[in-house]
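Record pair follows.
FIRST:
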Amino acid sequence: MKALLIILGLGIGRIKKITEKKEKLVWAHQIMNELVERASTYKYDYNGRTPQIFKDGGGTEVPTSAPLTDDPDKSLSITMNSGKDQKKKDPNRLDGTDKRDTPGYYGKRETPLLIAAKMGIAEMVEKILYTFPVAIQDLDSNKKNVVLLAVENRQADVYKLLLKGSYLKESVLRQVDDQGNSALHLASMFGDHQPWLIPGAALQMQWEIKWYRFVKHSMPPQFFVHYNKRGENPSEIFSRTHEKLVKNGSKWLIKTSESCSLVAALIATVAFATSATVPGGANKETGVPILGGEPAFVAFSISSLIALCFSVTALVFFLAILTSRCQEKDFHRDLPRKLLLGLTSLFASIASMLVSFCAAHFFLLKDKLKSATFPIYAVTCLPVTFFAFAQLTLYGDLIRAILTKVPQRSYKVFPH
């Protein structure tokens, strides 16, 4: 529709919006480059003389170490006294351990790299890591690094970028959060939000399985933590958090299959009756159809047979969905493929039935009205055409969900 509007000269407003978005994208890219180049937070060049300053929960600046002086004894005394004072009032110190000793820890403050990973801005993640490779060690308050945040928020572009980058070390892949969850644990969790750019609970479940398996196969098995602090492994978390989604997907599939199987059964009944009918009758002596040489008769015979075959095929696929157990693994390939093949067969049977109807009706008109039959048949096919276009969105979503290897997160529902 957009392409047609542009060709007809009616899409000037859309072209202007695209131009404005392109300009904003270029400006944002330029601003990002300037911010990264001028950033002082990511210099990571502490030489022991100028301490790094962190802010505690109350906003008070707390130095991580005392500045060194020319006198080693004096410097050591300052450092020891500073450490004693911090033990009394530093909220970062828990159970005798200092959380700031963890490389890249920034308290409750999140670094730009972690924010960009959560928001899915792959360009910013790439630029920061290219300029400051040591930023890969950054952690948030829950001890989640850039890999864990990208996996948890379903940011496929960021995660694929990290897998391709040379700065990704084994220690980053081994990282677990404060609850003992690895990347596979976070990939198996499902919250109330629906980040995937796909409608329907069944297709949502399919993309959840694809995301879980993509993360599982992209990381070495020996890096996985099989159990977190709650004693759960990733497969148990996946089953527990996706239980409601499986039920909703099963209900949607059953409801859709029941409606489509009813239509397929009606078409099969009509197609069976028409396929055994010979327009114009047959020769009593030879049994050969009288109108057998007409092109319309050939079209009627072939289309009625195709309508019967495809309607029965669609009915079989929909009945297979209705009798399925609808388990988690079935949503990966089995159920979506059956639904796609069933809808394809149903559309083909509807189109073939219309062709056979028009071909048989062609013989009932007189010769002087044959020139006006084609516009009439075209108008007759409009209701079915509208139905096909109404279901085209679901059909396209099914094809995209099946062919897509790595699901893409939706930014229309959850903007930056």
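SECOND:
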Amino acid sequence: MGVHGNILCILMLLLHKSSQEEVFNDKKTLNLPANYKIGWMETLDNEKLISTLTIPGTHDALALYGTKLAECQAWSLENQLKAGIRYFDLRVSGFGLRIMHGPIYQFTSMSKVLKTVRKFLTEYKTEIVLLRVKPVLPMEEKVQNLVENMIKNDEDIWVSPSIPEIGQVRGKIVFVQKNTFTLGIILSETDKQGDYEVTKVKDKEKKIEQHLEEAANQCMSQSTTGSALSLSYSSGTSLGTYMLVWLLPKTLAREINPWLYAHLAKEFEKKPTPCFGIIAMDFPGFDLIQKVIDFNSPT
């Protein structure tokens, strides 16, 4: 091949690695790109319903511990907020409102989550942060009452089921309903039961594409009805299937995130530009997050 050929191969590998890191992140340290816009919601029209936005989110947002079997994210809550994530999927137990992933304690609690988010919103008053609470064991039946008592009379948290305009909730936390947790706005989920189980990456890609198409149709109708906020997941795992540990969350995200970025880039070229509601991801990188945010730019 020769010296020049070897150099070319090395450069191609480095470029490929760089591209992967921009859409996929498994580093705990946050290194914000130059001129990265943390307060990206600043330019949004106050009169728009939040159900007409496209919002970057994280699935099992604080699943940072538990080996490759359980880890779904690398950045802390604070770092995810700075990176542009505005929707957080939380699994909360009734035992001290601890954040869990399955049986694994994630070394934080609902009170710490609220404290971190409030601190962020104090600095970035233009932003809106959506929190979805899924009650889990132990003592899942106690979660809603405990959370209600914790946020009683807090005017900076939206708990109504009605979809607010952006201007109504700037600088606020917006709760999102999840089955047994009935505080906050209503979701319209595109994922069906079992869709998180993945044995083939291509099959998962097809499902995500179908879900985003469904979300786009929902989002179009939300511009007038404002009855619910769409939610789609790009996350998944082979754990629990016959493939066992073949495609754990990080392995799948490494494959899915570049595909998702390319798919969204293609969708962004459509006129008018579609909206998708919330897209909840595992291990998203800066470029993928930014691509989701781009759908909110005026056309």
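COMMENT: The two ends are 48 Å apart (CA to CA).
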